[in-house]
Specification:
Layout: E1 2-8, E2 12-19, E3 22-30, H1 37-48, E4 57-62, E5 65-66, E6 71-73, E7 86-87, H2 88-93, E8 100-104, H3 105-115, H4 118-121, E9 126-131, E10 135-141, E11 144-146, E12 160-161, E13 164-165, H5 172-181, H6 188-196, H7 200-224, E14 228-232, H8 233-236, H9 241-248, E15 260-262, H10 269-289
Parallel strand pairs: 1-4, 4-8, 9-14, 14-15
Antiparallel strand pairs: 1-2, 2-3, 5-6, 6-7, 9-10, 10-11, 12-13
GO molecular function: N-acylmannosamine kinase activity
Protein name: N-acylmannosamine kinase/N-acetylmannosamine-6-phosphate 2-epimerase/N-acetylmannosamine kinase
Organism: Palleronia aestuarii
Length: 290
Amino acid sequence: MTALAIDIGGTKILVALVKDGHVQDWTRGPTDFSGGPADWLDTAAHLAKPWQGQYRTLGIAVTGRVDRSGSWSALNAGTLGIPPNTPLRDMAQDRFPHPVALANDAQAAAWGEYFGNAEADRVRDMVFLTISTGIGGGIVANGRLRTGRSGLAGHFGQIWSDGQPFEARAAGRWLAEEADRTGHRTDAEGVFAAAEMGEDWAVALRGQAVARIARLTADIQMTLDPDRIVLGGGIGLAPGFLAAVEEAQRHLARDLRPMLVAARLGAFAGVVGIADLAERTNALQTETTS
């Protein structure tokens, strides 16, 4: 079955046709930060218009929190200014003629990384951690995606550490701010490039990010003890980053050390995951009504 999958993030809106876990076609446009949910959904509908009639299910993954009623709220308004309790499900139904499955984008990406590889890898419990501008995540336990009572499960970047959210001390926005304080106006990618060239200020910043992610993943391992922790996002997949985190954990006893692996789907993890969740939701609704 073919699904229309939409991923609304802080900087881009990705729209794709997905069939059996494979992206058949895709397009994207910018997220207008000055706009609002209606504008972002209108952009998604416009991008998907050429595929009208080619899909039977719909899934939307979004940054922020989505609860069981289909309401959407921001956890970090700096990423995207989502008004509290935005009726995302109802707004989507006004624009698309299909029932919609909703999920946080990192939770959807966690499911995308899991379901395509779980059988071959014999994994039942997995944590996905995306490290980019901020830090998000998702949890799969005993083969099921966990979203929690209020849609908060896996939001590791919002765990408070030293008086502020953890992502405020380890993610891309923090790297850019710290670089600026040292007189280097650049982003996280620029920091990592400078570190590769041996510039002391950048090596120090990268080292701090590595040490903090090493601590976070070790804490996740102690709390949930998953079979593996998958790292994604621009920083998580940066050359040498995963290996550096592993090296920082070398002092831990083997049984306490997380198994870290790189995400395989890259930017498409969210749309692949939400497409599968949409198909499962549609199948369950069909069984219930038949």
